[in-house]
């Protein structure tokens, strides 16, 4: 009998196993791997006002106010956000100013809220609520104090009301409401004496009023009124120290108004005498020293004021351009800048318009459009001369800093206004690598290993450590421009409010390409085109696999509902515009179909304002495919204004001649909600690309319930008229919410439930056979989430195994919406602690993985809530069978688990939308959240049951296996030798 192995040998094997296992665990805790699975990007939106704060020591910064209701401080050297506040949309920001060199002042809510923020860190110092008489054209003016810079008065004018506020503590020094009827102040000016204020207003469109006030007490020192011939438009600018330029209502004449100590005199100048064929959509830009800019969408004129005798054109720029405000350089000179579309950057002094201080040609990306706004700033060069820099806002909402003819930095802030999102697969990785690529990769490999070796030996500097992390990110599999077998690498193609299409890589969020569509280029003063939606147009497979995928952008050429539509088709890989067209009809509703033609272009129906449906693409093959399926196509429309839902079918009309791709619609049904008791709040339907794994649900007692999986199911929620306002605007007895499940083909109401004492806003998501919706319960003073599940009872007989064996079942029977469905509904309501901004549901490739609700909370974070918590069959004391099924015991409120926040510690400011994108790996879904910020991550609702983690080291696994095999061989040889020695004894 052989002797057992020695104890030291067992200790050696156990030690090898322990070292291998510890090495595998240790690889997952590298600090530089944090954030590799997700990314977060911060933006501010399109800048509409900017104020520089350049100091001799410390950081130079610019404070900006944006159209996304954001106030932010940017580093002037890099463009990085130093601090930022996203204000609620219900409190719109009106104006921005600086006081005492250390406070940022903001006026919001129509001139009713004045705030002061600390300039270095952005903390709010004080807030003052003002009682304005009318919320129109609020003005903010910070008085300058040449004597002592310890206190500055802030003047706020709204309507016929003026208030003076201390900039130190926000206390109201004085306030005054003027008695003149229909008075609206347009300008508040400060006299050189500092303690005198001039307030200029218009009463009744034709009377000009000038008040001279004491800055200390608000006492009216002088009151001068003058009636002007004709009505004024309300647009008044300051031409010089004592001359105002006002535009009449017909926009055909300019009034040059001179105000002196005792009287007002004026002169009238016809615009046609200055410029011929000037469009009505021009804009006046005040400069200084008697210089006024007159700006159109394609031309800029510089006008010189000759007291009240008239105006003359001194220079003309025949290109789309923007003019900055005047910037004080010396006591006599003020500079302004003109930035053209090229960009051509010109700086002039107002004292001498004919000469140019700076004229520079700046090369920028062509996909940024024209210059929208320019903000000028000066600095002192080393030779004591004046240099200039400019903050430029482009048509695509991007922000550039130009200095010495170069773009110092740029920000792609158009991404703060995303209106729609779609995805595209990346190209397939091609076989074969060139020698140059191999040599380059070899050099990079050697360089990377040398850096990593220095990092391991702790010899790397801070810059080399950053280079090591950059190399790891660059070499990471997730950042390649080819598709992977798990489907994690994709392109997120987003459409912004400016009409720009941008492709983001899911690996690190970088911009792959961008294109400002010429068909959606917005005119600054005329009709503004609007981008509506973006769809997948062509997803190549099979015979067209070599072609690139493409996307379709649908827009309108104006704000009116009858404005013609705009089509643009772009290559998903390069962003090149393949085709664009201006439609001869309007766009009211866009219906993407599941049908494809031979070239695998997806069919789309566009419904116009005349209720005609137009088929795209317009090709004979697409028409043939569509006509074959047209009898089975139905659609519905929800008109919130008229409170009506209508269902339609399509038919070929003989009245429409010459267009075989245009079809008339036939109204099949309509549901008219009584406006005195119900108002439509929201409607939702299932996603077209949603995959359902099984139509049956097996419950704890081994019974089978069949899901009602009709794609025609529509969820509609209505609220009582008094409950349509903000929370608390109605009493519980006056508020109610009614939820409907409607069949979109027949208009049949499958289920209806009323929630008494409930109020909006309502958010909902519909998936498979269930709907979850969120609202506020006025009686309980808490938010609630309700769930409705609908099951098909007509297939209940299929549970008989004998009938299935004998073939007496209806599993293959055609389903029609015209047959009265036998449905059963289960519902339940739960308390929820958060207000909701957006809701979505996770989507996976095969629909096998458990569903999770993605809830955008009021805190601008995304919460992943397991659908099992919203099971209507939950009970306080579940049976043993229900426990085995996985039903969670009933509680009155839904749990909020901190680890369930998808966004972790990040906030997606002003969160608007959540998109779930299925990956090829069934366990994983990709989640993209957008608002003013962007956030992307990967989510595994049922954990990664079908894959290893990204951090798993295959190399260490092979090393461990090799060590174990070697240990086994060594042990076997050792055992054989020992056995042989024992036999020789």
TrEMBL record:
Keywords: Endoplasmic reticulum, Glycoprotein, Membrane, Signal, Transmembrane, Transmembrane helix
Location, primary (coarse class): endoplasmic reticulum
Domain EMC1 first beta-propeller: 28-413
Membrane topology listed for this record: Single-pass type I membrane protein
Entry keyword annotation includes Iron: no
Localization: Endoplasmic reticulum membrane
InterPro entries: Beta-prop_EMC1_1st, EMC1, EMC1_C, Quinoprotein_ADH-like_sf, WD40/YVTN_repeat-like_dom_sf
UniProt keyword annotation of Repeat present: no
One term under GO cellular component: endoplasmic reticulum membrane
Pfam family, one: EMC1_C
Membrane-crossing residue ranges in chain numbering: 952-975
ER membrane protein complex subunit 1 C-terminal domain boundaries: 767-984
Signal peptide: 1-28
Family in the record: Belongs to the EMC1 family.
Complexes and interactors: Component of the ER membrane protein complex (EMC).
PANTHER family: ER MEMBRANE PROTEIN COMPLEX SUBUNIT 1 (PTHR21573:SF0)
Protein name (database record): ER membrane protein complex subunit 1
Organism: Urochloa decumbens
Lineage: Eukaryota, Viridiplantae, Streptophyta, Embryophyta, Tracheophyta
